[in-house]
What does this fold into?
Amino acid sequence: MSSKIVHIESPQQFSSLLSSSRIVVTDFYADWCGPCKAIAPFYEQLANSLSRPNHITFTKVNTDNQRDIAQTYNITAMPTFMVFKNGRETQRIRGADPKALDAAVKSLASEAESSSADGSSSSSGTWIGASLPRGYSDITDSVDLLNLDFLNVDSEAGNARAVFNTAQPSAISKSSSAAGKDWIESDTDEQLMMYMPFQSSLKVHSLHITSFPTEGDDDVVRPRTLKLYTNKSNVLSFDEAESIPSTQDITLQESDWDAKTGTARVDLRFVKFQNVTSLVIFVAEGEGEGEKTRIDRIRIIGETGEKRAMGKLEKIGDEQGE
It folds into this structure.
């Protein structure tokens, strides 16, 4: 097998590659599949000639060993080839079709070469820290940035808009942000209250939350316990959030955080997030004993609906949050 083909051993590894490489080509196969074996040498040849670090990466996923990944992308036939650009599926080829595979991959390879020549990279587009579920997209641009309202944010860190920055977090690139700190931290304790109105009604499938605790500072930690509230007309006070029912409570474990991208994918009870005009995220607890919770990025994953007229949000009855 070619050393340029990355064999995927876990969902976390796959998620990291989708974030770090601008284009990812994936061969979903099975050891018992005859057509998979027949096209494997051709796929290896493509990988040898077209692989480019951080620009185009060829991977293989054994569907018997990585059932979670196969289920996430609804793989029902082998082989299936998928092409991802900036973490999003752009093409799917079912069956051992060398001509279709060759055309798809070479077209993207040419695009990657062109992008490299003009100095762009995956970090110049919208950065995401985890893989996208099939059929859904990054809809973070639906957030109404002008009307954000965050409570208990340290003034010496970034402002509320920092977490919606489309660029790769400076904690990964090890570079300074031109706009200052591109993350937020809580102030007096580990709690944060984040009110996010949307420009249209959304169906929210999941959240990507990125957090890089500051090296050498045990007081800065990742969020652990989250409470989500939908369709509120304004930010909640901390006392109010503790006294009313949440739409969903989430407890993040250490294993939920991807080591490379610092991102946890938070899957939601989709039926409860079907017509969402605003979202409040209450970080009730951070990890361990730290007193400052840090968040570098938040991504909203789902589907957009009809645009609404901007202005004061209509308050929806609390029964939707029960």
Q: What stands out?
A: Residues 114-125, 308-322 have pLDDT under 50 and may be disordered. Residues 137-321 form a domain with the Jelly Rolls fold (CATH 2.60.120.470). The first helix runs from residue 11 to 20. The first strand starts at residue 5 and ends at 7.
